[in-house]
Design brief:
The chain has 298 residues and is mostly helical. 53% of the residues lie in helices and 2% in strands. It has 10 helices and 2 strands; from the N terminus they run H-H-H-H-H-H-H-H-E-E-H-H. Helix 1 runs antiparallel to helix 4, helix 4 runs antiparallel to helix 8 and helix 7 packs antiparallel against helix 8. The longest helix has 38 residues. The radius of gyration is 29 Å and the shape is extended.
């Protein structure tokens, strides 16, 4: 059960109207790294979480993300508020109105005209929010890693938004939201590493023949830079091209066992659609080229 408190988790102080900045802020409102995506991701994970501690954590963070959605939405609404009134009441001439809503250099004019300076669930590029942003897979060792990555991505977006504005009140609120992404990231990391045997994700063990092999697939100049990801003390480095194919010891060619009736129909299909390697038919493209050449000669 949810209950709404009219006081925001963090006070929003906006210094003035700025529709262009409001449009960019929508990235964290209805974008793939935004607060609604985070709240929905963690809430749906909490519903099916079997561990009571992790379930409480997910509910807590999901609910806080909804409060962050309210904070970022309030920033968007306040940045649009003056322009919203001017547009709604048509207090400017047509030319001045057009100049005001298109002068920000981005898609803020779309937000103004289509949504009346409101807070649509879209990204800053106008892409509608979608549940496809939610990548929950139902295993905590995988989902917690995804959550860590999601918080990291959101933190980076807030870094960029903070760098875009000189409004001290907006910077202050965005810094709070950015900092909370770090706090959530820390909680998710603690939860992940509190699971014994959290790596590899899932239950099934890896095939030991391939678990610690590093295939040197990208070869040539510049030479590969060594690092812990391809440390010869931890990985067997395979650079020989012949050893990179058919690593199971087989031929490397695909095979399938078919029933007798399937063999017959596949053979019939192959015969019916076979190409004649001895033929050289004139194609439509060649006819067009001939026509162009003749026209040029005329």
């Amino acid at each position: 059960m949810f209950a709404h408190n009219k006081r925001l988790q963090y006070t929003v102080r906006v210094g003035g109207t700025n529709p262009g900045l409001a449009n960019l802020m929508l990235e964290q409102f209805g974008g793939p790294q935004g607060e609604l995506a985070a709240a929905t991701r963690y809430f749906t994970q909490a519903l099916s979480e079997e561990d009571p501690g992790r379930r409480d954590m997910l509910y807590d963070i999901a609910t806080e993300e909804l409060s962050h959605l309210e904070v970022i939405g309030s920033i968007v609404a306040m940045l649009n508020r003056g322009a919203k009134g001017r547009l709604a009441e048509a207090v400017d001439t047509e030319a001045d109105t057009y100049r005001r809503i298109t002068g920000a250099g981005n898609d803020s004019h779309v937000t103004q005209v289509l949504y009346g300076g409101g807070t649509p669930l879209t990204s800053s590029a106008g892409v509608p929010w979608t549940a496809a942003y939610i990548d929950t897979i139902g295993d905590p060792t995988a989902d917690l890693r995804s959550n860590i990555a999601a918080e990291a991505r959101a933190k980076i977006v807030y870094d960029r938004l903070i760098a875009l504005t000189d409004d001290p009140g907006v910077k202050d609120a965005l810094t709070f939201l950015m900092t909370r992404e770090i706090a959530h990231l820390k909680s998710f990391e603690k939860a992940l590493y509190s699971i014994e045997g959290n790596f590899p994700p899932g239950k099934l063990p890896p095939d030991p023949r391939f678990e610690s092999i590093y295939f040197d697939m990208s070869q040539g100049d510049p030479q590969a830079v060594p690092g812990p990801w391809n440390d010869p003390e931890k990985f067997e480095i395979v650079s020989d091209r012949e050893r990179q194919v058919a690593v199971d010891g087989g031929t490397g060619l695909p095979t399938v066992e078919l029933a007798p009736d399937e063999v017959a129909v596949v053979a019939a299909f192959a015969t019916r659609t076979a190409s004649d390697p001895q033929s050289d038919p004139t194609t439509g493209a060649e006819l067009g080229a001939l026509g162009s050449g003749n026209a040029a000669q005329r």
